[in-house]
Write a structure and sequence with these properties.
There is one protein chain. By secondary structure, the chain is an alpha+beta fold. It has one domain (8-291). It contains 8 helices and 14 strands. It has helices at residues 43-56, 76-81, 84-92, 97-110, 112-117, 194-200, 204-215, 250-255, and strands at residues 8-19, 23-24, 30-31, 38-41, 118-121, 130-133, 136-138, 141-146, 149-155, 175-192, 231-240, 257-261, 273-277, 288-291. The chain is flat and about 65 Å long.
Amino acid sequence: MTILKNKIDFAVVFTVNKANPNGDPLNGNQPRQDFNGHGEVSDVAIKRKLRNRLQDEGESILVQSDERRTDNHRSIRDRVAAVEALNKILTKGKGTSEEEASAEKLACGHWYDVRAFGQVFAFKGDKLSLSVRGPVSIHAATSIEPVDITSMQITKSVNSITNTKDPSQKTSDTMGMKHRVDFGVYVFYGSINPQLAERTGFTYEDAQKLKEALRTLFANDASSARPDGSMEVNKLFWWEHNCKLGQYSSAKVHRSVKIERTQDSDKPSIKEYSIEVDDSELAGLVAEKYDGL
């Protein structure tokens, strides 16, 4: 295993076609939008999908969705308690700097998502809190143009519980709403910091696994809100710098991705967009380009 030595930047372009990419629970689970009407997908939602993909590939994940868990633990605290050496340090009380470093090393060595994204270990009843700062940072995704949202009323064909007043009549819980983005092209960016990678033990091999997870982000991610095929990774751009600090700032690298609509049609698709990297100002740094599945 080779500890990551040089900075990495990446960008992912994906499409949403009649799906809800990330519902807002404070807005009736409608797709997220900013004040200008552009669609958004939170960085937390993106990391959830990455964890799921990495878990599918056999990686050990601390923050598992309950419906996808691969062990008998029903909480993060229970999963941590199963690692005896780590649990002993967290419940001992205020530890020395050496013990805290040992606990961080144990957690990072045991779980991929901890050494990648970091984690705060602060549980009720524990005497020691531990914060791990991960090297992988990911922005929220934003659509290139404002998105149109369609809402539809839906009904269930059967009551969840019998109507006690009149069993032949439907109850109020048979009514509901579904929301979707008709079509949108989204992009998000990210970086991997080698200084933090050295601390958490994040390796170059780990980075390659992350790259593959980004390329296949929506594989095995279907749901009623996101039918299979309704969300697709179209492009992945991957830059590997030749030094720790990076040949250029992440902001400059990310700005090199140019996405423009070049034509219009009655049925919008990714074919209407030009997706290119303008590397004229990034001398010596070339993007690796990958298509989705």
